[in-house]
Design brief:
By secondary structure, the chain is α+β, with helices and mostly antiparallel strands. The protein folds into two domains: about 1-165, Sandwich (Jelly Rolls); about 180-264, Winged helix-like DNA-binding domain superfamily/Winged helix DNA-binding domain (Arc Repressor Mutant, subunit A, Orthogonal Bundle). It contains ten helices and twelve strands. The chain has helices at about 1-10, 35-40, 50-55, 115-120, 140-150, 150-175, 180-195, 210-220, 220-235, 250-255, and strands at about 60-65, 70, 80-85, 90-95, 100-105, 110, 125-130, 130-140, 200, 205, 240, 245. The chain has a four-stranded antiparallel β-sheet with strand order 1-8-3-6. Helix 1 packs across helix 6 (about 150-175). The longest helix has 27 residues, at about 150-175. The two termini are about 30 Å apart.
């Protein structure tokens, strides 16, 4: 079955497998948490009705997970795939001193399947940053899903390529952009990612991250992040009230960050 799954992952000749718009219409409120996964995959590859039904069947693996829960330990080998369906999680590495570097955010529709596919040790840890809804799909069920549904397998392959490209953008962020530019770039990126699953519209989205969470992704101190956010607000580029972020001047913010969303 693993051979079938890997063959499906590499097979780009799936009928109707053309790239579609990253910005489908906003999801209805009653679509349920699995909608985020379906919308994410359909933004990469068109799915058939039987594919959507197969994703819906994952509902039995979904559970609620509180914030600050470690989902996978670094160097651990998972026997399952993880799918984030609601909330924010992070991929991170931690130094002996305890300092944390977030190397990626996981938003609804994102997944980690390295252990399920290859049984390789994970070179980083995964932890929830907020209360989340997580699907923990056993390896056998996950490989069966990929083997039976090549469109889903292809969409997941495209998602991996986007994740790799995002990692490269984060390296550029840390190495070549100022604190102001880094923050602007991250806010633009989150807008694109959340808009693709119907969780953002009109420049507005929920940002439930603390300033420490932002700082550990941006390579800044939380004090510096606070100053940068104040500067962006003072310049009329964003507003931030509680957890609600509004990008007031998207073109100017993108120009400041030199943001091009094609890698997503």
């Amino acid at each position: 079955m693993e051979t079938l799954a890997l063959t499906a992952l590499m097979n780009a000749a799936v009928p109707g497998a053309t790239r579609v718009s990253r910005h489908p219409s906003k999801a209805p409120a009653d679509d349920g948490c699995l909608c985020a996964l379906a919308r994410r995959l359909e933004s990469l590859t068109p799915l058939a009705e039987q594919d959507r039904a197969a994703l819906e069947a994952l509902r039995g693996f979904v559970r609620s997970v509180p914030r600050n829960t470690v989902l996978m330990e670094q160097e651990g080998v998972a026997d399952h795939a993880l799918v984030v369906l609601a909330g924010f999680a992070s991929r991170y590495k931690r130094r002996v001193s305890g300092r944390r570097q977030i190397v990626g955010y996981l938003v609804p529709g994102d997944f980690c399947d390295r252990g399920a596919l290859h049984a390789y040790p994970l070179d980083h840890a995964i932890e929830t940053l907020t209360d989340c809804r997580i699907a923990k799909v056993p390896r056998v069920a996950y490989l069966d899903l990929l083997g039976r549904h090549p469109r889903i397998a292809l969409a997941l392959q495209h998602a991996r390529l986007a994740e790799e490209a995002t990692t490269r953008e984060w390296v550029v962020n840390l190495g070549m952009r100022s604190g102001l530019e880094r923050t602007a770039h991250l806010l633009c990126e989150l807008m694109e990612r959340l808009e693709s699953i119907g969780h953002a519209s009109d420049g507005r989205y929920d940002l439930p991250l603390t300033q420490v969470d932002l700082a550990d992704a941006l390579g800044l101190s939380s004090v510096h992040v606070n100053r940068v956010l104040q500067a962006l607000r003072r310049d009329g580029l964003i507003s931030l009230q509680g957890r609600c972020l509004q990008i007031l001047a998207p073109r100017q913010l993108q120009q400041l960050a030199e943001f091009e969303g094609g890698y997503l």
